[in-house]
Design a protein that fits this description.
globular; alpha/beta; Rossmann fold; 9-stranded mixed beta sheet; about 450 residues; 6-stranded mixed beta sheet; UDP-N-acetylmuramoyl-L-alanine:D-glutamate ligase; 3 domains
Length: about 450
């Protein structure tokens, strides 16, 4: 069987290595430049590859194509493959064929990475033989080569879900659906939501779908009447069908597999969105039979991924929080809502068509200073000019931190939560967050 792989990043190279290990004929093609680390992996495995070009004749002579998630179905090479009726699948679909392990799959517009990492942490700390893979930055296909785990916690983006057909999760989690990446879905929320719902595809009565019962887009799109698995809705807003919800600082579960409460008071996660993430992860852990005490201890030791409401330092009773991953309005809403102290808010970058109206009341209530960090700050200034007492702007993150320090008083929080993409001043959100951390360390913590 001949396999062509489009894209030589983490997922593409992982799929190539798995295909080679299973004795398939493999060719890897990347229209861009392949990173040296991935070239080395392909060369070591004696897998032929090309970069800077797609050789149509070779690719279209394959029996199946594995497409990296960053490549759109509208790409010319994919359209040509479709015309020739060559199946185009994702790395995750391919990997699922070669393991009997069960999959715990997590998706959502916001919160999927935190939920994935927390779920993995709870299960691993309980001694369950579990691996971590997917959109988190680790190839599932490459891990399946050794096939050492009984379970995999897999973070899935909508782009990965789009080319999955026979793959089945044992437990699926959908944190929320809000507008994002709509350019890939013909600017249709219905199509984007349908993509997210693919996480529950192919489920049977022995499988479980956990979803945010407060999310109107999930409610609108999910057809529970024709769903084959068991649903476990979780809610903070009192949804009538909720099986998982908060009572004070404890999570209450009222389901067939478990009925009781888990104390979350020692968790370091803050904000309403992290309550949703925690409900989902705790419910998965209870489904997997993890004891309450084990969950409570693991909640205390969990460290979230960088750039997600990450406390990077405290100086003179002022806390500095890096939330650079908050590149949309919804994520910033959760950050502003979750912080109870007065806020000096650093925001801005490349606007993604944002509607800031949902943030106005929170800003009026909590934000004492808005520091606009970007090349074009007019939309931010227009949205918050009448509700935030002090507004400043800069293109220097070091200056933004220095200014924040000078305006802060004990008990304040300096929050980097941009609501925008980073590409006007930084390589990506990680670069922006790292620069913020460095500025805090250099300007604040060492003085």
């Amino acid at each position: 069987m001949k396999i062509a792989i489009l894209g030589a990043g983490e997922s593409g190279v992982g799929a190539a290595l798995l295909a080679k290990a299973k004795g398939l004929e493999v060719f890897v093609s990347d229209k861009g430049e392949i990173k040296e680390q991935y070239k080395a992996k392909l060369a070591t495995a004696a897998i032929p590859f090309e970069e800077g070009n797609h050789t149509l004749e070779t690719i279209l002579n394959s029996d199946e194509i594995i497409k990296s998630p960053g490549i759109s179905d509208k790409a010319a090479i994919v359209q040509e493959a479709t015309k020739k009726q060559i199946p185009v699948i994702s790395e995750i679909e391919f990997a699922g064929r070669y393991t009997d392990a069960k999959f715990i799959c997590i998706t959502g517009t916001n919160g999927k990475t935190t939920t994935t990492l927390l779920t993995y942490h709870l299960l691993k700390n309980a001694g369950i033989n579990v691996g971590l893979a997917g959109n988190i930055g680790e190839s599932l296909a490459e891990k399946v080569i050794d096939n050492k785990h009984d379970y995999y916690v897999v973070e899935l983006s909508s782009f990965q879900l789009d080319n999955m057909y026979q793959f089945k999760a044992h437990i699926a989690v959908l944190t929320n659906i809000t507008p994002d990446h709509l350019d890939r879905y013909e600017y249709s929320m219905e199509k984007y939501a349908a993509s997210k719902l693919r996480v529950a595809r192919n489920m049977t009565g022995a499988d479980f779908f956990l979803f945010n019962a407060d999310d109107k887009n999930i409610r609108k799109t999910f057809d529970s009447a024709n769903f084959g698995g068991t649903t476990i809705p979780f809610s903070l807003d009192g949804a009538a069908d909720a099986k998982v919800y908060f009572e004070g600082k404890s999570i209450k579960v009222t389901a067939r597999f478990y009925e009781g409460t888990v104390d979350t008071s020692r968790s370091g996660l803050i904000g309403k969105h992290n309550q949703y993430n925690t409900m989902a992860a705790v419910a998965v852990a209870k489904l997997m039979g993890v004891e309450d005490k084990q969950i409570e201890q693991a909640l205390e030791t969990f460290e979230n991924a960088e750039h997600r409401l990450q406390l990077v330092g405290i100086a003179k009773e002022v806390s500095y929080i890096n939330d650079s991953k908050a590149t949309n309005v919804e994520a910033v809403w959760y950050a502003l809502e979750g912080i109870k102290q007065p806020i000096i808010w650093i925001a801005g970058g490349v606007d993604k068509g944002n509607d800031y109206s949902t943030l106005v009341e929170l800003a009026r209530e909590k934000v004492k200073v808005l520091v606009c960090l970007g090349k074009d700050n007019e939309k931010l200034k227009e949205a918050f000019g009448r509700v935030v007492p002090i507004i400043a702007e800069t293109t220097s993150i070091e200056y933004a931190v220095r200014l924040s320090r000078s305006l802060a008083t004990p008990g304040d929080v300096v929050l980097l939560s941009p609501a925008c993409a980073s590409f006007d001043l930084f390589d990506n959100y990680e670069h922006r967050g790292q620069r913020f951390k460095e500025a805090v360390e250099k300007i604040v913590l060492k003085k």
